[in-house]
Amino acid sequence: MHPRIEDYALIGDHQTAALVSNRGSIDWLCLPRFDSAACFAALLGTEENGHWRIAPTGAGTCTRRAYRKDTLVLDTEWETDDRAVRVTDLMPQRDRAPDVVRVVEGLAGRVTVRSTIRLRFDYGSAVPWMRRSDGHRVAVAGPDSVWLRSEPEVRTWSEDRATYAEFTVEPGEKVAFVLTWHPSHEPRPRLVDPYESLRTSVHDWRAWAAHCRYDGPYRDEVVRSLITLKALTYEPTGGIVAAATTSLPEEIGGVRNWDYRHCWLRDSTLTLGALLACGYQQEAEAWRDWLLRAVAGDPADLRIMYGLAGERRLPEYELPWLAGYENSRPVRIGNDAIQQRQLDVYGEVMDSLTLSRRSGLPAKPQMWRMQCTLMEYLRSVWREPDEGLWEVRGPRRHFTHSKVMSWAAADRAVRTLEDDPELSGDLDGWRALRDEIHREVCARGYDAERNTFTQSYGSRELDASLLLIPRMGFLPPDDPRVVGTVDAIREELCHDGFVRRYSADHLSSTASVDGLPGSEGTFLVCSFWLADALHLTGRTKEARELFERLLGLTNDVGLLAEEYDPVAGRQLGNFPQAFSHVGLVGTALALFDGDEAG
Ligand SMILES: OC[C@H]1O[C@H](O[C@H]2O[C@H](CO)[C@@H](O)[C@H](O)[C@H]2O)[C@H](O)[C@@H](O)[C@@H]1O
User: Fold this and answer.
1) CATH superfamily of 5-207
2) Alpha-carbon distance 19 to 15, whole Å?
3) Confidence at residue 444, expressed as pLDDT on a 0 to 100 scale
4) Where are the domains of the chain?
């Protein structure tokens, strides 16, 4: 049986990441970058598509699993009455080549351990040639090579397109495996010392986590989320991926399977906010600089997402040879949403740059110039319909959230000018724009009969993004229209207390709100937004209860996917997802680190 999404834990080296199941199997690993082809793709197919399992012979799921405190170093243990063994997994900070280190350590009795590795390059499709060289097993296919060795060396053999090793450990005995990726045309990679890597990783992560300035309740959960956000950041450029995976389904067996290994302006600006609020200025600055490079050029060419280094083309295609996670097909690479118009992005970019200024990040001269150009462009397009923040694949609409965020862009432009007399810009024009958008949203995006804002102009649909209205400052939290909207969303979009993005009524028909067949779960970041809105509107007790229930959805190692299915009681969608962890950090800060409301 396929592990559930929440059966996985993440390890990474700030350039890519792997998913390790609670059976001790690495089922997902893209090398050398997050968005490279996977060499282990069992996550989206079968073991034949590549995996690496280390576990006691005959054992199934582990008996205990945890990250070492404040690190991304994972311990997985199997314990029986008289025997116990631990596998410690990590990806060391990169020198040149990416490495995976797996240290097996005997804890009690004499345990026989088996390593089974099936390397399959190009997303599980290419079976490499294997050879031996200098104590390594070397796998080569096309541009990729992987070098595998152990310390001390254990006997390995190949059979049925897999490489095996079997050995025993007694208490205190260790065997460390190192897998290193390398371009196949280059000479052998430099050796890393697995034990030294383990020590350094633990030290570096703890030093990083110690900078977290949040010291309130649930600090461990907040730090775990921050570590996850850091692990989703591509260090060479500062770009932040939305999640470590592609095509984990929003509906088991369905078609809502997308590639999240790219940098969305929306997801990353929110991530930046969470990191900044917790004191991580360096990461925020790196992302701000990534943004300035990525959006450079004609504002009409602004993309809603980019590749890790700011690439502007992410063509979407399918991998027919992969069966998909629990048969959820197609498996998609790339993302056509890059072609969409999503007006909210202007508001998010302006908001995050305002935040970065206020947090004291040194401003760059080209920053304000770029903001003025974006504003001029937004002034010419804000009246147009768009695909909205949920990236609907149906017809464009006048999404209320997109207009609210256009208002936010104008508002942040005005406020930046008011704050800094040294900057120049069209203050009167932007004030007028801000007022005009506000008037229009209140007139066309609000249903007076039901006392709620609506998903798009003239529609009766609701949308969870409207929970952000008070947070963006569009209306005060005690405005009856805000309270009415929060209540209507609770009434219509909640399932078991968790929030759907939009109405579920049409989700089973092909004429769904988002133009896609099938259904989906409750959306975790929206559920955190509900907790924020409840807190802002004075219902802090309910906000805390919801927050605690949401914490209860994290898996055994504190990770969240994009969605949750309250009926099946399992996580859905790409994993771990930055959006969900940003939500967790934001709500913790709002509830326990800010002004107490109610
Ligand atoms: O629901 C259809 C869309 O789903 C994906 O978008 C979602 O993920 C993005 C990244 O986290 C997020 O920014 C967006 O708000 C979400 O709706 C997918 O990437 C799209 O291609 C797809 O149309």
Assistant:
1) Glycoside hydrolase, family 65, N-terminal domain (2.70.98.40)
2) 14
3) 98
4) 5-207, 211-592
**Separation between Cα atoms, residue 473 and residue 477, nearest integer Å:** 8
- For residue range 454-509, what is the model confidence (pLDDT) as tens digits? 999 999 999 999 999 999 999 999 999 999 999 999 999 999 999 999 986 554 44
Pocket test for ligand 1, best of 228, 256, 258 (most atoms within 8 A of CB): 258
Alpha carbons 335 and 107: distance in angstroms, whole number: 46
State percent of the chain over pLDDT 70: 98
- ipTM rounded to 2 decimals: 0.93
Q: How many residues in the chain?
A: 598
Average pLDDT over residues 70-81: 96
Pocket test of ligand 1: the residue of 265, 338, 391 to mutate, having most ligand atoms within 8 Å of its CB, is 391
How confident is the prediction for the chain on average, in pLDDT? 95
The answer to whether 396 touches 387, Cβ cutoff 8 Å, is yes
390 lines ligand 1 (CB under 6 A): yes
Which letter does DSSP use for residue 527 in this model? H
Rg (CA), the chain: 25
Ligand 1 mean position to 540 CA, how many Å?
30
Residue range 577-581: mean pLDDT, rounded: 98
Regarding the beta carbon of 264 and ligand 1, being less than 6 Å apart is answered yes
Mean pLDDT (whole number) for 305-323: 96
Q: How far is the CA of 4 from the centre of ligand 1 (A)?
A: 21
User: How many C-beta neighbours within 10 Å does residue 364 have?
Assistant: 14
Atom 21, ligand 1: residue with shortest CA distance: 337
Sign, CA torsion 463/465/468/472:
negative
Q: Is 451 left (phi over 0), alpha (psi -120 to 50) or beta?
A: left
**What does the block give as tokens for 300?**
């009409």
Domain 211-592: top CATH class: mainly alpha
Task: Convert the pLDDT of each residue in 162-171 to its tens digit.
Answer: 999 999 999 9
Query: Rounded to 5 degrees, what angle do the CA atoms 263, 268, 269 make?
Result: 140
Q: Is the CB–ligand 1 distance for residue 502 below 6 Å?
A: no
Closest CA to 523 of 504, 548, 545, 542: 504
DSSP reduced 3-state for 108? strand
**How confident is the model at residue 300, as a pLDDT?**
77
142: left (phi over 0), alpha (psi -120 to 50) or beta: left
Task: Tell me the per-residue pLDDT of 347-359, one tens digit each, with 9 for 90 and over.
Answer: 999 999 999 999 9
- Is 453 close to ligand 1, i.e. is its CB under 6 Å away? no
Helix axes 524-536, 480-493, angle to 10 degrees: 140
Distances in whole angstroms, Cα of residue 570 to Cα of each of 3, 46, 53, 525, 552: 11, 21, 24, 16, 12
Give the least confident one: 17-21, 160-164, 285-289, 470-474.
Answer: 285-289
Give the distance (Å) from ligand 1 centre to CA of residue 545: 28
Query: Is 267 close to ligand 1, i.e. is its CB under 6 Å away?
Result: yes
- Residue 373, burial from CB neighbour count under 10 angstroms (0-12, 13-18, 19+): middle
**Maximal C-alpha separation, the chain:** 77
Q: Does ligand 1 come within 6 angstroms of the Cβ of 337?
A: yes
Q: From ligand 1's centre to the CA of 575, what distance in Å?
A: 13
